[in-house]
Amino acid sequence: VVAPNQAPIAAAVAQRGAVVNLGDHARVAPADYRKAIEALAASPERLAEMSRRAGELTDGEGAARVAAVMREGQ
Questions:
Q1: Cα→Cα distances 31→1, 2, 22, 35, 37, Å
Q2: Tens digits of per-residue pLDDT, 8-51?
Q3: Alpha-helical regions (H) of the chain
Q4: 60 — pLDDT class (breaks 50, 70, 90)
Q5: How far apart are CA 60 and CA 37, in angstroms?
Q6: Do 28 and 50 form a contact (C-beta atoms < 8 A)?
Q7: How far apart are CA 59 and CA 33, in angstroms?
Q8: Helices 44-57, 30-41: crossing angle, 10 deg rounding
């Protein structure tokens, strides 16, 4: 989380099991990143489940929507 408005979104996505939320970037130490990465590396099943859950939160059409809005503005 690098901005205050990202905190509730990060918390909600983490609650859905789609990410590991380490919190405010200013309070995250290199050891925190290492610990999170090692935990995911040790559990490919957890990583696969996170990926599946993340896929449920998106439709994969975001870039197309952004492009459409940009075309409309021309």
A1: 17, 18, 11, 6, 10
A2: 999 999 999 999 999 999 999 999 999 999 999 999 999 999 99
A3: 7-15, 30-41, 44-57, 62-72
A4: confident
A5: 25
A6: no
A7: 28
A8: 100
